[in-house]
Amino acid sequence: MRAATTKEIAAATAASGPDAVGQACREAVGELQGDPGLVLAFTSGDRDFDRDAIEMAEAAGGASSAGMTGKGLFGPDGPMDEGCVAMAFGSHVSAAVASKEEASGDLRTAGQACTAEALENLGTDADLVLLFIDSTRGDIAETVSGAYEAAGPAVPLAGGAAGGSGKRHFHGGRATHDSIVAVAIHSERQLGLGNTQTCKTRGTPSILTRSNGQLVEEIDGRPAEEVYLEQLGFAGVAFDEEEFESMAITHPIAQPELHGDFRLRHVLGRTEEGGIILGTGIPESAVIEFTELDFEELLTSGAASVQDAIGALEGADPKAALVFDCAGRRRALRDGIPQEVEAITTALGEPTPPVVGLYTHGEVARLRGAKGDRNHAVVTVAFG
Amino acid sequence: MRSSQLPSAEAEAAAESPEQNGRTVERSLRRRFVEAARRAAIIGLVNAASSEEDLGRRFIDELCEVFDAELACLLDGGDERRSARAISTVGLSLDAAGGLLKQPEYLTSLGSDRAVLLSGEDLLGIGARGAMVAPFHTEDGRPVVVVVARLHEAPFNETDRAMLEAVTVAGGQALERIWAYEARNRSAKEQAALLRAAKSMGSSLEFGHLMNTVAEEVSRALDSDAVICALGDEVDGYVVMGQTGLPEDFLGFRQPPGTGLGGRTVEAGRTMVTQRYDEEGFAPPETTALDNLRAGVAVPLGWGDRIRGFITAGFFTQRRITAGDIELLEGFAELAGLACANAERHAEVRHAAEIDGLTGCLNRDGLQRALLGLISEAESNGTRLSVAILDLDGFKSVNDVFGHPTGDGVLKGVGAALRSSVRGGDVVARYGGDEFALILPDASEPQAAPVLDRVRASISSLEVPGGRITACVGVAERSEGESMQELITRADDALREAKGSLSPGSVRRASRSTSPLRASTVNGASPDRRQRWRAVAGDIGLGVARESDSGISAAVAVTELQDVLQLELCAVLQLVSSGRLEVIAEAGPATPSAQSRDADDGSIGRALREKRRVKGGSSQEVAVPLIVGGRAWGAVSCVAGQRPLDDVDVELIAGVAEHLSAAIRTGDLYEQLTKSMIGTAEALAAALEAKDSYTADHARSIADLAVDVGSELDLSESAIDDLRYGGIFHDVGKIAIPDALINKPGPLTDEEFEVIKQHPAIGAEILAPVPFLYGVRTIVRHAHEHWDGSGYPEGLTGQQIPLGARIVLAVDAYHAMTSDRPYRQAMSHEEACKELEDNAGSQFDPEVVQAVLAVLGRREPSAVEQESPPTRPSAAAGA
């Protein structure tokens, strides 16, 4: 176990054990100079989620606490496959947590209601809303749009979708799924948000000719999977399910924007009818491109996200960083994960401030524009 | 934030080699490709939207994404009937978006064909640093405006503007289509709501019930929290007659004229709307019932060219009241006005039918109706009930000495005295001539005594020419199980005993009566012939009063008089417009008189001119005028038999004539009442026509054919009348069947048919409030029964099915078979006739089928062809 602290914000990790969450959270809280204003904790691996949720709440005492599961973590000790990373914030941070369960019935409404409640409970202007969501229960764009309805353009949104096999959210001493957790944060110090995504295009642009929500049935008037594989150079290759999933993680679909950006859409799977399922819906008639994650760019893009976040601190030194990194990127990096984490911590400067990160199944980052749903992204919140 | 980005094509092209420049051109083409596809995607999205809300959200969401904008909204500029509003927003509240409607840039855009590009600080009052405002005008000139704004410093360019203009046109057109669809949909729903309301209102002829019905229907149709229906005038204010959603004691609240939303609506004579009910001081200070209202709409309620009140629909939360809401409420008010007019007419007619025009007390009909009701109540509650009958002593001398006008004045005074001296809840009626009846609920004979003392004192205190007037009274307490007639008879007997005592102002209790006068009358041993005749007159009067048809009443009167007085001839004659008299009824052994004679002739002419009884021909002839509603209607003419007619006989004839006059008046009023009720039924027929024009045409056609078949079968006139209405109303119950079933093209499922099968019973219920249509109800209820029992709703067989229903079934089937349907063409006349024959004995009554075929066979071929109605719109119409 290792802790890092600036006395105002502290991070701690506990690699394994049934009480890893309790240990990490207590350690982080203990490193603070005073009472905590907020405790965040993220776990990975097969765990007793209910116990984790209770221990987290107990360690936070009267302070707000929230968290979720990830597909891997990193903290002051570097990357971890299982265990817990926790970050405790001193009293210069005030927070309010709200949640909505059974959110998949209407993700947009749930996102809006949950965010509105957190903002209301905060009792002061929010500087950031963290969203912990579930990408397996529908289009995360809907959840984020709902949150934006409540938060408006003045409040940045950040966060991600729970990862790992359990996919749980922690709030109020409970572990839930098919839920949304919103953490409204007010800080007396600067906050900065960074977001990067990276890929290289393959093949030629195509038109999405038939879709229904997240299901793409046809591209260029042909079965979507056939065109997808053909454009990526896999024409005629017979992937089994596991192989297809493994390949798709590193080959998202991109939707180019008028202003030059493009939005990556993770390919979740395929259907027997030849369709492909995306993490976020794309309307019919849209142009799409086929992409491949590039190992070298993956290694550096995490650091770029951190640098963006630090840049937004308007000259203040980062006192801590919270990173939501795409689980697909992690899978593509494989052996390069320690290098990516090293690049991220290095980007934070010396002495390395407390940092915690987790690998998520969909990310949230909205600073400009109205949209904040991300795939294959690294989202960094820097605390000044 | 950093993200992967394609470099600017323009910037790269400037500094690159030819090879690089080629790549730049490729990027430029790719960008155009992206633009075109984005535009197509947005157009596809808006065209797929199913509602205004759906379109607004999809469209505005997508614009934010396409233009990397934080704020966007879709605004409806409104028109003369609809206020401007924000339909959908991203990044700002609806209130904030509503503020955009006041911005000069918004107003400027309305007059422009192109999108307005804006850049600067705090644009549009929403802190934007770049914005585009794009207008679109619907075909009817209603503006739709799209606003897209960025908070970050990145101004929009011409490419953005062109893109926004293109998608705004697509969005505006899609919105226009949705509005048109929603308007049609809303109109259909409103029509359905109005039809349902028409049915509910049409079944109510009592104001209180009607107003509550209106309130409930309005609340349901507008989804309003509270509804107030108030009636009154500009002097005394408006009384709440019906309401929903408010405390029960609000019913009866009197709103001062010109106050509140409703009062001001009446004052202005037009619909008024408020979105700030509380802030604008509409809640009357006299009550707290309306304190929670936040929005409301009130419409004037009137009929007969006069505003009589208002209907207000209120909402407890802020709610935008739409033009559709207003139109719907105005529609309700129109319907409610018609229903109120009907109810008012009904109330007037009913009042007039039960009130004695001279004394203001109930007449004999009214007495009987009230007594039946109070007996039923007494039986239910186990309470006592007494009836008293009063006879004015020596009243004849008032008439004889001072004339009938003076006598009428006395009767009027007695009526007023009685009404003012009884207890609340007691009933006062004029029983006939100078006799009055009192119904005294919750009173035994002894308990009635103080009331009767007060009554007699009140009568004796009247100033009457020639001195005081007194009244004898007979009173009877109802025994358990005793009928109305038995109770009246006992009270009447007690009265005879009191009169027989020769002591003016006597009171006799039936319980102490030892020699019922009626018994002695029957036995022919009356000590007083005058009293006996009076009793006989009462008996004949009862017989007359039981008949609602004035012709039958006249026949009863002449038959009874002829029998009792052994007259040579007794006749009732009616004065017709040509100044002649027509015989309505006559009895006696003499040769019947001419059916028509000059009204100026003889004693009858004098009786009519002078409005008094006239004796002529040495007491061989007596003529007594029949005065109905103050007008000489006709006369009773009697020719004596072997014995000359004396004064007592004449009194009997006059008493009977008085009863007959009352019966004729009642008959007239009953006819008016019936007309009023038929008006209600006709309103239902109109409602049916509005719902389904095919059904209405079909109904009229089969009514005509059914009447001919009824004549072929030699049915009575009234049975043929029933057939006519049976044909018109046989499918009136379809009003209650969902349109989706009525208009379903193609065969019905079993479940759907079960629903359809309910319509005959519903139709019969709809006609229930109209007594005149009693015979028609049975036709309507059974017009889908089959001869072999395979029909519905009760599965009756053969003769169990009313003949009228059997006729309507066959005629309906013929008409349906010769109609086009969506799934088959009409049969020819010959084919349809063969079907009728083939199914005679199974589906149809064989005798009726023969009659239908005979009627159709006699019709001109062209007339038979014309039987084919317009194309049948649904499978269910003939179910």
Helices and strands in order:
The complex is a heterodimer of chains A (384) and B (879).
Chain A: E1 3-5, E2 9-14, H1 20-31, E3 38-44, H2 49-60, E4 64-69, E5 73-75, E6 78-80, E7 83-89, E8 93-101, H3 107-122, E9 128-133, H4 140-151, E10 157-161, E11 169-171, E12 174-176, E13 179-187, E14 191-197, E15 200-212, E16 215-219, E17 222-223, H5 224-231, H6 241-249, E18 253-256, E19 262-265, E20 267-270, E21 276-278, E22 287-292, H7 295-311, E23 320-326, H8 327-333, H9 337-347, E24 355-360, E25 363-366, E26 373-374, E27 377-383
Chain B: H1 9-14, H2 18-48, H3 52-67, E1 71-76, E2 85-90, H4 94-100, H5 104-110, E3 116-123, E4 128-137, E5 143-150, H6 158-202, H7 207-222, E6 226-233, E7 237-244, E8 254-255, H8 260-268, E9 272-274, E10 295-303, E11 306-315, H9 323-354, H10 364-381, E12 385-392, H11 395-402, H12 404-421, E13 427-432, E14 435-441, H13 445-460, E15 471-477, H14 484-500, E16 507-509, H15 517-522, H16 529-545, H17 550-565, E17 569-575, E18 580-587, E19 596-598, H18 602-610, E20 614-616, E21 621-628, E22 631-639, H19 647-691, H20 693-712, H21 717-729, H22 739-742, H23 750-756, H24 759-767, H25 774-782, H26 803-817, H27 829-838, H28 846-858, H29 861-866
Parallel strand pairs in B: 15-16
Antiparallel strand pairs in B: 1-2, 1-5, 3-4, 4-5, 6-7, 6-11, 7-8, 9-10, 10-11, 12-14, 12-15, 13-14, 17-18, 17-22, 18-19, 20-21, 21-22
